[in-house]
Design goal:
Length: 481
């Protein structure tokens, strides 16, 4: 870490324009860090905890990068002088986990009264949550929402400079700023935000209300970021958005997601491209063709179903039917026979009958997903479904959920077992935490494989002979050339 130029940066007032404004406040954080070290005999520690989706994880990399550039050492929560919780509000249990942590942080703050506790992200943006935190959780010093994430350094400086409590929940900002420091979990792969927000307004989902309406980044900015990542040694990128299939709408020069995908695949040095998440109603034949024709695109597609009942899909405001979803899967598999399909399924949505649930089970049997994320319906205040009169009790929903989970696991195990004996390429991600002398890799279809290897292999793509299926992962060995 060097501080050369900080005095120059801080000589005048804070710039108005971004990203120069945040660079100014990051320099101020470095000044705070030096003062802290003089007082306490050590550098300050910072921690970012992530709850929720891949987009939250990508945002957390920026927060961690800002802390690092601001002179903080990244560490675990128990040692941190600044703790930032980047939150999710899609399901009630995610919110409960965050509030549950605050009790433990209260104890830590008694030992370190200078400690700053922050909450940001989707939960913070939800109506009424900031006021609840303001009133009932005095341990929290900093609250900011999804529309002003890029101002983290500015808000943290205010907390430190003025010993102030900062609560900033802005409206639907149109600002898109990705030019921030970031601390990637992996040096060889990275997420790239291509759009923000959602226009779908599914009746069960709070995301459009907290993330705002769709905003697409300019393709040239995305491609510049991908090229910088490639130059920094990244070989796999994941393009991120609440609904990547609707990328490009609203831009001055319209572009489809399929066109962007092809352009990303042309970047030299990038060997794998993934994306998430796809809405079935917007998945075009143009995109299917691009996936089939671009060898860099991983043979994996996350295609949320939510329910197999056309009547429930209509109540969910999903804009497709059971029949159209199955027809889409047929077109995908015809073009890409080796595709791995994953999905999301909600059990117990208001009004769900046993017949509706059996429609979902029928889709699962016919599609035969490689994996599925299954959830009991979570009633979220502020969504239309929360006010539907025919809520399904947990006593009725839980047995259905258990049956669905058993079917999903059975099919996934069968599909994985069928690939035993084949050779597939794996991107080595890390040393195996449970087996000494082994490493863990990710296949194109997103399944993990564990095999003998050493840490020098991390970040490389190697051919692996799949020798044994363990249900949701494989054991293997490096294949001889």
């Amino acid at each position: 870490m060097t501080f050369q130029g900080d005095d120059y940066l801080l000589a005048g007032e804070a710039p108005v324009k971004e990203p120069a404004r945040q660079a100014y406040y990051i320099a101020k954080l470095r000044r705070h860090a030096r003062a802290f070290e003089e007082e306490h005999g050590r550098k300050p520690f910072g921690c970012v905890r992530t709850f929720g989706c891949q987009m939250n994880a990508r945002d957390s990399e920026k927060f961690a990068g800002i802390l690092r550039e601001g002179g903080f050492i990244l560490t675990e929560e128990a040692e941190a002088d600044v703790v930032l919780m980047n939150t999710c509000t899609v399901r009630e249990n995610a919110a409960n986990r965050v509030f549950g942590r605050l009790g433990q942080l209260t104890g830590l703050k008694k030992k370190r009264p200078w400690m700053v506790v922050g909450i940001c992200g989707c939960l913070a943006q939800e109506d009424g949550i900031a006021d609840e935190i303001r009133t009932h959780y005095r341990v929290v010093n900093l609250v900011f929402g999804t529309h002003n994430l890029y101002k983290f350094a500015e808000y943290l400086d205010k907390c430190l400079s003025e010993h102030a409590r900062v609560i900033e929940i802005e409206g639907d900002s149109k600002t898109i700023m990705e030019e921030l420091p970031n601390e990637r979990k992996y040096r060889f792969k990275a997420g790239v935000n291509i759009m923000f927000g959602c226009d779908n307004f599914c009746t069960y989902c709070i995301v459009p209300h907290v993330r705002g309406r769709e905003k697409s980044r300019r393709p040239e900015d995305i491609l510049d970021e991908v090229r910088r990542l490639a130059a920094d040694g990244v070989t796999e990128v994941m393009l991120l958005g609440q609904n990547v299939n609707s990328y490009g709408k609203g831009l001055e020069e319209p572009i489809t997601f399929a066109q962007l995908l092809r352009q990303v695949c042309e970047v030299e040095g990038i060997r794998r491209v993934r994306f998430m998440t796809s809405h079935p109603k917007d998945l075009s034949d143009e995109l299917i063709q691009a996936m089939a024709e671009c060898p860099k695109v991983c043979r994996q597609l996350h295609l949320p179903l939510q329910s197999g009942s056309s009547s429930l899909l209509k109540r969910m405001n999903r804009h497709y039917t059971k029949e159209s979803y199955l027809a889409l899967v047929e077109r995908i598999r015809a073009a890409i026979p080796d595709i791995s399909l994953s999905t999301d399924i909600i059990v117990g949505f208001p009004g769900e009958t046993e017949e509706d649930f059996e429609e979902t089970m029928d889709v699962v049997r016919r599609v035969r997903y490689d994996s599925a994320f299954t959830f009991l319906y979570s009633r979220r205040s502020g969504t239309p479904a929360a006010d539907f009169p025919d809520q399904v009790s947990k006593e009725a929903a839980q047995p259905r959920f258990d049956r669905l989970l058993a079917l999903v696991q059975e099919i996934a195990a069968e599909k994985n077992a069928a690939r035993v004996g084949t050779v597939e390429e794996a991107l080595v991600e890390e040393a195996d935490a449970e087996r000494e002398g082994y490493v863990t890799g990710r296949l194109s279809g997103n399944t993990m494989v564990h095999f003998p290897g050493d840490p020098a292999m991390i970040g490389t793509i190697v051919p692996v002979h799949l020798t044994e299926s363990k249900g949701f992962y494989y054991m293997g060995e490096v294949a001889s050339c």
